[in-house]
Amino acid sequence: MVDTKEDNQPFSATEQNTNFIWSPKGKILALEITICAIATICKAVSFVCYLWGCITELVWAIFMFIVYAMDLQTYMHLSLMYLQWLDFFRATTGSLILLVTSLVCLSWGRESAGEVFGSIFALLAAAALGYDAFGIIKYIKNLKQQGNC
What we know:
Keywords: Membrane, Transmembrane, Transmembrane helix. By secondary structure, the chain is an all-alpha fold.
């Protein structure tokens, strides 16, 4: 008998989700979620510094992870280019917000260890978001060159 399924097609939704999780984009989003969660917990211990930046980026990263993992852009009738630009906007604004708020928090004071560690983890999250933004721009350029806009 001839197998009608191609080798590169996932067999189930679970396999499709796990394939995304182990992709480079899935790993970057998982890293962003983890670092933002750690920064949120550390900053929540000391109620002194800006907490909203970490929480906002954590929620956005979880949302984008779900959209990519479950392939929801096809169900929401979003074009691939729109989703990539939305992800780029998320990554750049998140990187800038976390960078600025972390530097401000580090310059204000060092009374609380949670504040310092939270700011350091937020700087790491800003670096991960910046890396993600550069990867997204590279992907968008490749899509435009292939004519898939």
